[in-house]
Amino acid sequence: MPNLVCSVENCAYNYDYLCALKEIRVAGENAVDAHSTCCGSFRDRTETITNCEYCGGVTKETSVCCLAEHCAYNDSNVCCADGIDICGCGSHSARGTECASFHAV
Length: 105
Ligand code: SF4
Ligand code: SF4
Hints:
- The chain is mainly β.
- The chain has strands spanning 3-6, 14-15, 18-19, 23-27, 38-39, 63-66, 74-75, 78-79, 83-87, 98-99.
- β7 (74-75) and β8 (78-79) form a beta hairpin.
- The model has no long low-confidence stretch (mean pLDDT 89).
């Protein structure tokens, strides 16, 4: 289970650069670089969804299901990296996010 740091401040699940979810899904079946991946669990923060709803559940131990099979850290759709960085400052959709830790096989 990788240490996850996330800079997607517009995501409802982001709290102080951590992810409040116990599991996320990274998309990018055919990705050959970080830009072709994204956090499929992204949820845009809205007026009814705020960070605070998830503060209590924030943990660095977020398991990562990942579809980017061309990444060296992908082990049968489970991320086995020690740590990953999810990026996407200013994004209001999953497409603007990425796993910056993607490392091509
Ligand atoms: S973008 Fe993904 S990793 Fe980042 S807080 Fe949202 S769900 Fe968690
Ligand atoms: S480091 Fe690789 S395997 Fe882990 S989430 Fe990122 S793209 Fe997927």
